[in-house]
Structure formats: structure tokens, C-alpha cells
Amino acid sequence: MKNKYLFVAFIFSLLVLHPIFGQSIRKGFQEMTEYEIVEIVDAFYELRNGADLFNDIATFHGDYFNFDSTADPTRLDLHFNLPDEQEREIFLAWHRVVVFEVEQTLQEINPELSMPYWNSTIYQSPTDALWDEDFLGSFDAAWELDRDLGADNRLPTPTELNNLLAQTNFFTFSNVLERQNLHRGGHVWTGGAMPTPLSPRDPVFFFHHSFVDKVWHDWEEIHHNSSYLTTSMIRYDGTYVFDGETLPLVDPNDITDSRVYGVFYAEDGLAELDNYIVSNTYNPEEIFYYQFNIQAGNNFVVPSGTVARFESVNEINLVPGFEAAPGSSFEANIDIQNGGMLNKSFSKGAITRTKNPYPYSEKINEAIVWEEGGNLLDDKPIVLTAAPNPFTEKITIKLNKRKDCVIEVFNMMGMLIREEAFQNTDTMVIKNLYGLSSGFYVIRVTDANGEILVVKRIVKM
Ligand SMILES: [Cu+2]
User: Fold this and answer.
1) Residue 136 CA to ligand 1 centre (angstroms)
2) In Å, how far from its chain's centre is CA 241?
């Protein structure tokens, strides 16, 4: 059993040539909490201090924007090499790395942050929260970006996105994405710096390219077909120095799956973590954080000697194919204390700055901690539904198989307020909940062996 994990870890180490890993769940900007918005805005301002990563990237991006290689065949660039110069093509891969480079720096400032994405097929209004003064709006004046939101209105439609995802040839997909609205739209619609070679001066560049990267990720999940002719990229060729550190050499063919960077994309309240072998040995600050539903399985493996932490405010589900090997450290936390941060409508005007940089570190948690000696059995039942949520009088919990179970209901203070045992059943109903005051509760379902099946936050209406 143990050899199996060593074997997959070994294979994985052959595939990944450089030791940079994150643990990151990227979400749409509209899913960011008020706290995350304040933190990312602050972090962006901080990046302009000192070595100024923003201007370094913008200058590089401008210096190597796009050249005619017939005039100077030695001069490399980042854009528009398709369809004619396939051997020079690096557009998607280079922008994947640059987004990751900035995300890593954000996480050094606040490990809970990840790079959000701007889904420009949906969010197409200058009055979207993204552009509020408390979000990315203030940069327009502060950094003299001179945006002109919506003046050139060529944002992509959902149909264009679907047509793009249906492309079967990688270079055709990349070329159409780059030249048409899915990429060009976000640049020209924003205006100011964004339609220029210095576009990375605008923070929305990274939200936009996080979305472009998500589209590539989604395409690769369907077609498994991304492949480059070149094996090196400017800036990431092992010679470029920023702020005293040499950036790693990256072969674009090594990063065609965004999991190489520990990056997953959440959508509509669900982050699916799959087909991933954790390689972190120990970094207590690295975390897969997503406030809605994290679902891990389908060959998500935590090998011996590695550490994985999940944290959610609402729900974490381990589904078939999740494996944590003996000797690994796996932890999943439901942070109920910070549940109040959820779903606050983002209001214009001053936000009170949170002084504590780690709001999730002080927890009244119901934690699932899986440590050495534990075992997640393959026959562990899976919780299918806990409904309705919000509830009024009763909650029904359905499993995928019949089992002996105990259900506990905790209040926000972590106090046990209800406990019921069920024998050999796949449907459990907890009744007579009229008396509870409205607000948040946590239910925990445990099987006969004491294994926790699910911890879920529920709301009493
Ligand atoms: Cu670019």
C-alpha cells in the first residue's frame, strides 16, 4: 500500500521540474468576501512598494509584447505567434506563470488570498462591484490608469466561450482565444492601460488572465491535448532576476495542467479538487480555502510525508477516490465563526479594516483531522444531501448506502444541542427543530466507527 504512494509521488516528481507549489482555489471576484476584497486591494498596493513587481511585469510585458520575427529572428515575444509561427508560441503558458508569480507574492502577504477571476462573459457592467472604489476602482486614479469602462464594448458571450471550448486543436483554440473577444475583449472594454503593451499595470489584468487561464484549464480538462513546440519561455528561462531572486526555468509543456501549481478553479459555490497528488512537505500556511463547498476525491491523494489543509465556511465533502496515506497529515476545517462574513452585500463607502491578518486562524471548529494511523475506508458512505437548507422544522440527510450513523447538531458556540443515532438506514430525519432560534448551526454525521462523514453548516430560518 505504502509503495503505491511512493510510486505515484516518484512519477509526479519526474513530471514537475521545479519546486514551486501553491495550494490555491481561485474563485470569481463576485464570490470574494468583504474581507478578501480589502486584503487583496491592500496587497496590490503593497506590491507596488519596494521592488515593484507590478511595474517589473508591465515593463517586461511591454518590452516583449509582439515582434515580427522576419525582421529579427532572434527576438522573442509573448503574443500573436499563431497561426504562422507555432514554434515561437507561448501565450497561454506564459500568462499562466505570470498570474501564478503574482499570486505567490499575494500569498506571501496573506496566505488566505488567491488570484480571483473576472468572468467577462457574465460580468459586463461598469457598475459591477469589481469596479467599486473599494475594490479595483481606486487604482484608476491612484495609478493613473485612465480606464474607460465599456467604451469599446466587445466582451465575449457565453456562446463564444462554448464555441471556443469545442475547438479540438490546441493551437487553433489558443489562437482564437487570444485574438478574439475572450482575451481581447477584457483588454479593450476596460480601456486605459489594458489595451496597451503595459496592460499588467492595471490589477484587473491579473483577474482577466486568471479567467483566460480558467478557460484554458476547462479546455484541457475536456481535450487533454495542450502541447507546445518550444521548451522555454522568456522571463522563465532560469536567468531572469527579480528582487535578488532568479526566477525558475519553466518548460511550457510542464504546466499545461494548472494542478502543477496546485491551482484549482471554483465555480458557482463548488470547488472540485481531483486528480492531484499533494507534494507539499510542510508549510502550515498553505491551504485550500474556499468558503462554499469543497469537494475532494477522484484521485486526490495526500501521500505519506505531505500536508494538506482544507478550509471552508460551509461544507467539505470527501468523495470516492480521496486518499490520505499513512504518514500524511490531512485536515479539513469548517470555520463556523467566520460564517458571518459570508454573503454580505458589498457596499460602497469605507470598509473597516480588519487588523487580524488571519481571520480564520481563531476557530471554534468542528474539525475532521485525519492523521497517521487513520484510514479512510473505501466503503465509507457518502452524504448525498442534507436538506432543506435553510431549514425550519426538520432536516433530511441521505446517504449513498445503508449504515449505522450518529447525527449531532451544534450551535455557533460549538455546543451540542441534539444527538440522534440511526441503525442501518440511508435516510435520516431530524424533526422538531421549531424551537431553535434562527441562525447558523453545524451538523456532524459520524458512522459507527467514529469516522466523520460530513460536517455541514446549516441555517435555521
Ligand atoms: Cu499579455
Assistant:
1) 19
2) 27
